[in-house]
Amino acid sequence: MRRPIVGIIGNHQMIGDDYPVQAVGIMNIDAVSQVAGAIPLIIPAMPSEATVEELANICDGFMFTGGRPNVHPSHYGHEPTEAHGMFDMDRDNLTLPLIRHCVEAGTPILGICRGFQEFNVAFGGTLHPEIRDLPGRMNHRMPPDGTIAEKFEARHIVSLDYGGVFAEIFGSVEVCVNSLHGQGICEPADRVVVEGRADDGTIEAIYIKDAPDFALAVQWHPEYNASQNEVSRPLFQAFGDAMRSKIAKGQA
User: Fold this and answer.
1) d(CA 242, CA 22)
2) Mean pLDDT (whole number) for 119-132
3) What angle in degrees, to the nearest 10, is found between the helix axes of 89-105 and 114-122?
4) The model scores a pTM over 0.85
5) Of 89, 102, 206, 228, whose CA is between 20 and 30 Å from 16?
């Protein structure tokens, strides 16, 4: 059987002050290749370059990565404020319809951090602009100092629904995860099923109801040290297994 091809959604970056690029973190690429067992393909977040149908015909699955710019609040009926931070409308205009297309077509998809938030917005949910400003919430943002390992170290517990899809993947109803986000889900979309929460109530693990195939997303960053981490590894393995299963069915 051939290896699945995973489209990894990129992010707009600047080299210096005048050279724009589309970039994907190497840890995302390594997680897809080494743990999911798939071929990583960087997809520029530029909707003018390809239709969602064209992309879906090329890839067996998609990973919607994290990124500094946030989903523009106009996509969920809110007004932008300073707390909403930076935006990338090109990425919004690619990922939101691509997520919906993949769910309806049964293409396996995995959302991470911003990608997690995109899953919710794609189906009509809303976002908090800044989780740490809510009463009783912890600061979920990336630690400002330290090495990469220190910034990505596990910081809090996520409690998972007993008997749910995430508990089955992880073999536990509790996992300890990293935390590097400012925004988070406010109102879950009707099709978004919440299966994991931090101790402060922040939503951390979701899937799309009635999706015909793998359509899972997490608020943390499982791509860090994915081949060694006992939480990250089974998630990427399950993502890879879903794509291989679909390929096998198509070849039968």
Assistant:
1) 27
2) 92
3) 70
4) yes
5) 89
Domains of the chain (ranges plus CATH)? 5-251 (3.40.50.880)
CA 31 to chain centre: 13
137-149 pLDDT tens trace = 887 787 777 888 8
